[in-house]
Design a protein that fits this description.
A seven-stranded mixed beta sheet has the order 2-1-15-14-13-3-4. The protein contains 24 helices and 27 strands. The chain is α/β, with parallel strands linked by helices. Strand 25 and strand 26 form a beta hairpin.
C-alpha cells in the first residue's frame, strides 16, 4: 500500500453502553443491563477462581479523583491489590529509582527552576517533541544563560539546541554515567561536604566506576572521550544543574538501574535538594504522576503509603471499613503474564489501550482474548474496547469532568468541565460507584470535591490542598501537609541540614552494573530499532489521529542516509521491517539525525504500521517496564509482482 493510500483510522466516540451478544458482536444496551453484565462477570470470576483473578487497569489521563475511586473499588469491592496503569509502561523505573535513593518517587524540582539554573542535562529525552510545555521552560533557561547538553542516540530536535550532543549507542547509559562519575571523582570535582554528610555508599560507588575510564567508555558507548570529559566537568562545575530524563532512560529491561546511575551523578555533585538543582523525570501524560499518587498501583496506597506498613494499612481499613490484603498486587506486566497462565480471568480496563500500547502487541492481544471477562470504560471504541464483553461510555477528563490532575513537577491543578458529555456517556466516578452498587457496596460521592476531601484525610502529602487553595494558588506541589503554609518548590532540602536528626536517611548511591540490551543485533537482525514520540501525535493515536496536522506524515521506518544507500531504498519506498517477534511494512524516511545501524519508529499509527509487533517484552525486574527502546530488526525491499 502506498503512503498516499494510507488512511488514519477514525475511532468513534462512545455515546452509549455496548454488550457482546450471543453471536459475538457488540450491540447497544441500556445502562442497567451493561452494569449488571459487567458486575456479574467480575463476581463469577472471583467466585470460581478467587479474588486475585480480577485486575483493574486505571487511567493516567483521568483525574486524581477517578484514580482514587478506581483503586478503592479494587481494594474494597473486589478485595485485591491488582491495580496498575500505563505508568508501568513508561516511568515506573523513575519512581522506583527515586524512591530507592530519596524515599520519595517524585521529581525533585519545579519547572520554573529550569529557567534559573546554570546547566541543563537532557538525557534520553526529546523534550521539544515529547514535552513541549516543559521545553518552553528549557528555552527560557537557555535564554537566561544556562548551558544545555543532550545525551541521546539520535541528534533530536532537542539536541539541536544543546551546546554539546553525546550520541551514545542504545543501551549504554550506565557505562556513560559511570564514566562521567569516574571523571568527576578523578578531577577532584566531587562535592565532598555533601557526599560525606548526606549520602551512603560512596566508597563502593568509587570502586564500581573505576574500570570505566574515558577510553573504556568510548569503546562501549561510541561517545568520544573528550565529549565525556567535557560533560563531566560542565555538570560538576555548575553552581546549579538540572538533570532531566524521559523514556530513553526508563524503557529498558534495566530501566531502574539506568535511573539510579543518573541519580548517582546528582549525589556526587550535590545537585539535588536546592533551588535550581535537582533531578526531573518528565511525564508524558497529563496525570501519570497523579495516578500513582492516588494509589492506582499494586504496592502503594494513596499518598504513596506502603501497603506492607500495618499502620498505614490500618488507617485505610478503618476509613473504608474493610480488610486490605497485606501483600502487593500484580503489576501490569505480571497481569499480562497471569492472563497467559489463566491465573487472571477478569479485567476492568479504564481509559487504557493495551492491545496497541504493550510491547509485542500480537502477544498482548492474544492474552487479552484469553480472558473470561473484559470490561472497558473509555471515551472511544479503541482496539481494546473492540475486544470487550462490556463497553461503558465515559467522559473526557480534560473537557467534561471536574477534578484535579498532577503533573511532572508534582503540581496538583484543578480541571473543570467545559462541555456536556455526548449521548449517554457518564462520569467515570459515577460509573465506578454504580458498579460498586451492583456488587453490594453503596457508595455516593456528592461531587469530585467530596472524593478529594476523602483522599486528603488519608494522605498527609495532600492534606493542605483544598479545592479553594488549589484555585487561589493556581496549583500546589506535594508534599503539602499544612493548609496554612505554601509548600517548597523542590524536594530533599533536608539533605543539606547540619543536624543529622533533621537530615534524616542518607541518599544511597546505586551500585548498578552495565547490562546490554536483551535483543542483540547480529547478521540476521543487524539494525537497532529505538522508538519514541513525535510532536504531532499522541500515544496510540486514538485521540490525535482524528485531527489533521500540517506536521503529520504518518508512520515511517527512519534510517540514516548511509543505511538507506546501503539498502538501496528511497524516501517513501515500502519495505518489510522484521524483528524476532513479527513483521510490518512501512515506508522509508531518511533522517540525518540518525547514525549508521540505528533506526527509529513511533507507536502513533498502529492501524497503519503496528510498531509494537516488533518491540520486545523484556522487562525491568524491579519496575516491570518493557524494553521498547532496543529491538533488533532487519529491513527488506519488497518484490512487487505486476499482473
Amino acid at each position: 500500500m502506498k503512503k498516499k493510500d494510507r488512511q488514519t483510522k477514525q475511532y468513534p466516540r462512545l455515546t452509549h453502553p455496548l454488550v457482546r451478544d450471543s453471536n459475538g458482536t457488540l450491540r447497544r444496551a441500556g445502562w442497567d443491563e451493561a452494569l449488571r453484565r459487567a458486575a456479574d462477570g467480575f463476581r463469577r470470576a472471583q467466585d470460581t477462581y478467587g479474588v486475585d483473578s480480577f485486575a483493574m487497569l486505571s487511567c493516567a489521563r483521568a483525574t486524581n479523583e477517578m484514580n482514587y475511586v478506581a483503586q478503592k473499588f479494587t481494594r474494597v469491592v473486589m478485595g485485591t491489590n491488582n491495580v496498575d496503569s500505563c505508568n508501568r509502561t513508561c516511568h515506573a523505573p523513575s519512581v522506583a529509582g527515586l524512591t530507592a535513593a530519596f524515599g520519595s518517587g517524585g521529581g525533585t524540582s519545579s519547572y520554573e527552576e529550569v529557567e534559573h539554573t546554570d546547566m541543563i542535562l537532557m538525557w534520553g529525552s526529546n523534550a521539544r517533541f515529547a514535552h513541549p510545555i516543559f521545553f518552553h521552560h528549557v528555552l527560557k533557561g537557555i535564554h537566561n544563560g544556562a548551558r544545555m547538553y543532550a545525551v541521546d542516540p539520535r541528534r533530536t530536535s532537542t539536541a539541536e539546541w544543546a551546546e554539546g550532543w553525546l550520541g551514545l549507542n542504545v543501551g549504554t547509559d550506565i557505562p556513560l554515567a559511570h564514566a562521567i562519575g569516574r571523571e568527576i571523582i578523578h578531577a577532584g570535582l566531587v562535592n565532598r561536604a555533601f557526599v560525606e554528610r548526606a549520602t551512603s555508599g560512596f566508597e563502593e560507588y568509587t570502586a564500581l566506576v573505576e574500570p570505566w575510564n574515558l577510553s573504556a567508555a568510548e569503546q562501549v558507548t561510541g561517545v568520544p572521550a573528550d565529549a565525556i570529559r567535557e560533560l563531566a566537568h560542565a555538570y560538576a562545575s555548575a553552581e546549579r544543574a538540572q538533570l532531566c530524563w524521559t523514556l530513553g532512560i526508563t524503557e529498558h529491561h534495566n530501566g531502574t538501574d539506568n535511573v539510579r546511575a543518573l541519580i548517582n551523578l546528582s549525589l556526587l555533585t550535590g545537585h539535588v535538594g536546592r533551588y535550581g538543582a535537582g533531578v526531573q523525570p518528565l511525564r508524558g501524560q497529563n496525570n501519570v504522576q497523579g495516578g500513582g499518587d492516588m494509589g492506582a498501583i499494586p504496592n502503594r496506597l494513596p499518598g504513596f503509603q506502603d501497603i506492607l506498613d500495618p499502620v498505614a494499612r490500618g488507617k485505610f481499613e478503618r476509613t473504608w471499613d474493610t480488610v486490605i490484603q497485606p501483600r502487593y498486587g500484580m503489576t501490569l506486566t505480571e497481569m499480562f503474564e497471569a492472563m497467559e497462565s489463566r491465573e487472571l480471568r477478569a479485567v476492568y480496563c479504564i481509559g487504557e489501550n493495551p492491545a496497541q500500547s504493550e510491547a509485542d502487541s500480537e502477544q498482548a492481544v492474544r492474552r487479552l482474548a484469553s480472558l473470561d471477562h473484559l470490561v472497558v470504560q473509555d471515551i472511544f471504541l479503541t482496539k481494546t474496547a473492540e475486544m470487550a464483553d462490556v463497553v461503558l461510555p465515559a467522559t473526557a477528563a480534560w473537557a467534561e469532568t471536574e477534578g484535579t490532575t498532577t503533573n511532572s513537577e508534582r503540581r496538583v491543578q484543578r480541571v473543570r468541565a467545559a462541555l456536556l458529555p455526548p449521548g449517554e456517556a457518564r462520569e467515570d466516578i459515577d460509573i465506578i460507584c454504580a458498579m460498586a452498587e451492583q456488587l453490594g457496596h453503596h457508595w455516593k460521592f456528592e461531587d469530585s470535591e467530596a472524593v478529594w476531601n476523602e483522599l486528603r484525610a488519608l494522605s498527609p502529602d495532600h492534606y493542605g490542598m483544598t479545592y479553594d487553595r488549589l484555585e487561589e494558588q493556581q496549583g500546589l506541589q506535594w508534599p503539602c501537609p499544612d493548609p496554612g503554609v505554601l509548600p517548597s518548590t523542590f524536594l530533599h532540602a533536608r539533605l543539606w541540614e547540619p543536624d543529622p536528626a533533621t537530615r534524616g536517611t542518607a541518599a544511597a548511591f546505586g551500585l548498578v552494573e552495565h547490562d546490554p540490551p536483551v535483543d542483540l543485533t547480529d547478521d540476521e537482525y543487524p539494525l537497532r530499532l529505538t522508538t519514541g514520540r513525535r510532536l504531532d501525535s499522541y500515544n496510540t493515536g486514538v485521540q490525535s489521529g482524528s485531527f489533521a496536522s500540517p506536521l503529520r506524515r504518518g508512520e515511517y521506518i527512519e534510517l540514516c542516509p548511509e543505511d538507506a544507500l546501503a539498502y538501496g531504498v528511497e524516501v517513501g519506498e515500502e519495505v518489510r521491517v522484521s524483528s524476532r517477534r513479527g513483521s510490518v511494512t512501512a515506508p522509508v524516511w531518511v533522517d540525518p539525525a540518525l547514525r549508521p545501524g540505528l533506526a527509529f519508529m513511533t507507536m502513533h499509527f498502529p492501524d497503519e504500521v503496528d510498531t509494537n509487533q516488533l518491540t520486545i517484552e523484556a522487562n525491568c525486574p524491579i519496575a516491570g517496564t518493557a524494553e521498547f527502546k532496543a529491538s533488533a530488526i532487519r529491513i527488506e525491499k519488497l518484490v512487487h509482482s505486476w499482473i
